[in-house]
Structure formats: C-alpha cells, structure tokens
Design goal:
single chain, 5-stranded parallel beta sheet, 5 strands, Rossmann fold, alpha/beta
C-alpha cells in the first residue's frame, strides 16, 4: 500500500523541531503533504509573525531544503485540510492508501477515533488511518513560543540562539531569516525585500 504522511502546522516560525518532524514523516512514508498556515500570528506580549514574511522564507529557504517527497500546501487552516484529504480519499471508495497523521504528542490526541470516523469511517475501519505523535526528544526540544521570545529581545546572544535553533539546512541563511522576522529597522526590511525580488527574478530567468 502507498503511504502518505499528513503534517499540519502553523510554523511561526519554522524551526528545527518542525523540520525534524517533517523529515521523520518523509522517511516513514512514500510522500508527505505538509499543510502550512500563512495566517498572521499576533499575540499580546509576543513579537508578531506575519504570513507574508514566512512565505518569503518558505519560498527562498525552506522549500528547497526539504526532502524530495514532501509537497507543501499553503492553506488557511492546516488541520481542516487533513480532514479534507481524508474525506476525499473516503469518497473514492476503493482507495488503498494508508494515511499517517503527524503532530506533537499533545496535539495528536485531538485526532480521536470519533472525529476521524466522521470524516473517513471506511478508512478508519480498514486501518488506513494512523496517528503518529512525535516527541520533541525525537527531534529538537524547541517551541515556537521560545523562538518568538528570542526574536523579541534584539540581543545578540538571543539572535545567535535563534539562528542555532533553525533547521540545519537553512542555518547559513539565519541572519537573513532573522532580519525578515524581527524587522528591527526599515533599512533591514527594505534590504530583505530587495533580496527577495532579486531571487524571484533570477528564478523567472532560469525557468
């Protein structure tokens, strides 16, 4: 049977823990559907993370670094897309695909047999839906809350820590990623935008 990993995440920002989870899913499945929210995250007391900024980072740095069997989908509500894909497979009636849902060990508990059964009763009954909770000890013990806190201080030591907790494949671009997300100065923001426009134009030329 073909296996598809379903990975929903907000990823504000995308850090080494997220990357570890995606790579586990990529190693355990034929293909992975990674559902990413581009909604802004603005919370009182936290540095805001904007979807438009994350899209720049995804396009320029993250997507090119992912395993070849991972497809990224930018959506409004990632968890809803997991259920939508299961419902589509359920409607096919003769689907033999096994779907494996990935999340952290707490959020995976939200995928109950009751909720999954409402969306895809036949798939569930045929053991074609599997849930896989990934503990932070399997990846990197870091949270989005901690990453946003590191972004907010402006301190050089926190900046270095933030960059060290990015996925290893994009860590060399950590200065630019930090500048995009922290936006400490207008000059830095303009520099990032100019760099991104240059990157897009180069890709158009290559294509």
């Amino acid at each position: 049977m073909r296996t598809i990993g379903l990975v929903p995440m907000a990823a504000k920002p995308y850090h080494a823990g997220h990357d570890g989870l995606v790579r586990i899913a990529a190693a355990e499945n034929d293909e992975v559907h990674l559902f990413v929210s581009l909604a802004d995250r603005t919370r009182k007391g936290e540095v805001p993370i904007y979807g438009s900024d994350m899209k720049i980072i995804w396009d320029k740095f993250i997507e090119p670094s992912l395993p070849g069997n991972v497809d990224v989908y930018y959506v409004n509500v990632p968890v809803q897309e997991v259920y939508a894909e299961l419902e589509t497979a359920e409607a096919e009636k003769d689907s033999t695909t096994v779907f494996k849902i990935y999340s952290d060990v707490e959020d995976i508990l939200k995928y109950t047999k009751t909720s999954l059964g409402r969306s895809a009763p036949s798939l569930l009954a045929n053991d074609q839906i599997v849930t896989r909770g990934v503990d932070r000890n399997e990846t990197v013990n870091v949270s989005g809350t901690a990453m946003r806190a590191l972004l907010s201080t402006g301190k050089q030591k926190d900046k270095k820590t933030f960059i060290s907790l990015l996925p290893s494949a994009v860590r060399s671009n950590g200065e630019e990623i930090y500048a995009i997300l922290s936006k400490k100065t207008k000059t830095a923001t303009e520099s990032v935008l100019r760099s991104y426009v240059k990157y897009i134009l180069e890709r158009i030329t290559l294509d």
